[in-house]
Write a structure and sequence with these properties.
Radius of gyration: 16 Å
Number of helices: 3
CATH topology: UDP N-Acetylglucosamine Acyltransferase, domain 1
Order of helices and strands: HHEEEEEEEHEEEEEEEEE
Strand order of the largest sheet: 2-5-10-13-15-16
CATH class: Mainly Beta
Strand content: 25-35%
Helix content: 10-25%
Largest sheet: 6 strands, mixed
CATH superfamily: Hexapeptide repeat proteins
CATH architecture: 3 Solenoid
Amino acid sequence: MNFNLIIPKIKTKICSIFARYPVTYKWPSFWWRKCGFSIGRNSIIGPYCLLWANYHTDCGIIIENNVIIGPNVTLVSVSHLKEDIAQYGKIVTTTKEKIIIRNGAWIGAGAIVLPGITINEGAIVGAGAVVTRNVEPYTIVAGVPAKKIGMVK
């Protein structure tokens, strides 16, 4: 057993548990950074959020400055190819695509952001939305799947 590979994984698991169950509002950002995610200044991540990447140190999720993420938000930067099921009858491949959340964006409670998505500067994602496409700057999106419902004035 190679402890050089196991120790970082255990550290990451412990840090992600601390991040999901905060003591203060700054607690999650601190612990998600310890997991290896890129999180900018003054960004707030709510309690019970899940940042899901293949390996936390690959920076599959980039959160820039002044971003606010509500509670129970899920950011998923890994997935599987649907072609695997058709060809092999099971999942055999994992794909990684970055999620980028630009300066000043807001993500409402319970939203889900799928792999390969960029939420641009000043955009707002409504609570419970499932973001399947990039969100343009200063746009408000909501729904399942998320659709444009307005602009930030």
